[in-house]
């Protein structure tokens, strides 16, 4: 993840999407806007955003379908921004995989705070382990000195290789998709 958080906004109301996009850009976020579910899914797979802001009432598909489709292949955070305020609908969206839910009308300050919270969680997930040294079999990584040893011999890694190694260590035991690796490194 780069320092600039990339946000995909899937919202069919142009007034709301313009307001949110301008506000997010002022805060330093990179924003892509989609006005339909299909356009949003296309932009999601092609742009690999860091998070999604999703309206549920879209013209071509229900936003719940979008959550289900994204969760089929990605763990990217999804924040629902919807006029649907019934508890049942909120629970359904969260159970399908949305990370947060805010109802319209909303205050921009609250939305920005929720986005910052997501950004903090993303950064914590990508941070190297709190240990200063990682060791496993023949591999040793000293995070403070940025040294990698294989069988006790120092190995020079490019910055990209080092980031990839950090990502794999942080996700030890997990299967990482190619798209996830490309996005994170």
Provide a compact summary of the structure.
This protein has seven helices and nine strands. With 185 residues, the chain is α/β, with parallel strands linked by helices. The strands form two sheets. It has a five-stranded parallel beta sheet, sandwiched between helices.
Write a structural description.
GO terms for molecular function: phosphorelay response regulator activity; transcription cis-regulatory region binding. Pfam families: Response_reg (PF00072). One of its GO terms (cellular component) is cytosol. It comes from bioreactor metagenome. Residues 6-119 form the Response regulatory domain. The protein is of the alpha/beta class. It has two domains: 6-126, Response regulator (Rossmann fold, 3-Layer(aba) Sandwich); 133-184, Winged helix-like DNA-binding domain superfamily/Winged helix DNA-binding domain (Arc Repressor Mutant, subunit A). 44% of the residues lie in helices and 21% in strands. The chain has a five-stranded parallel beta sheet, with helices on both faces. It has a four-stranded antiparallel beta sheet with strand order 6-7-8-9, with no helix packed on it. Strand 8 (147-150) and strand 9 form a beta hairpin. Helix 2 (37-47) packs parallel to helix 3. The longest helix has 19 residues, at 108-126. The N and C termini lie close together (7 Å). The mean pLDDT is 89.
């Amino acid at each position: 993840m780069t320092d600039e958080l990339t946000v995909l906004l899937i919202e069919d109301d142009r007034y709301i999407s313009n307001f949110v996009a301008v506000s997010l850009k002022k805060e330093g976020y990179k924003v892509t806007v989609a006005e339909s579910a299909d356009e949003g899914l296309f932009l999601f797979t092609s742009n690999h955003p860091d998070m999604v802001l999703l309206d549920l009432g879209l013209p071509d598909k229900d936003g719940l379908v979008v959550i289900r489709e994204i969760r089929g292949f990605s763990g990217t955070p999804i924040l629902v921004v919807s006029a649907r305020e019934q508890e049942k609908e909120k629970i359904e969206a969260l159970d399908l995989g949305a990370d947060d839910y805010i109802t319209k009308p909303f205050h921009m300050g609250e939305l920005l705070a929720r986005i910052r919270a997501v950004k903090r969680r993303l950064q914590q997930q990508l941070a190297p382990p709190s240990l200063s040294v990682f060791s496993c079999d023949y591999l040793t990584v000293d995070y403070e000195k940025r040294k990698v040893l294989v069988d006790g011999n120092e190995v020079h890694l490019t910055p990209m290789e080092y980031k990839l190694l950090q990502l794999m260590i942080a996700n030890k035991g997990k299967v990482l998709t190619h798209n996830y690796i490309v996005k994170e490194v």
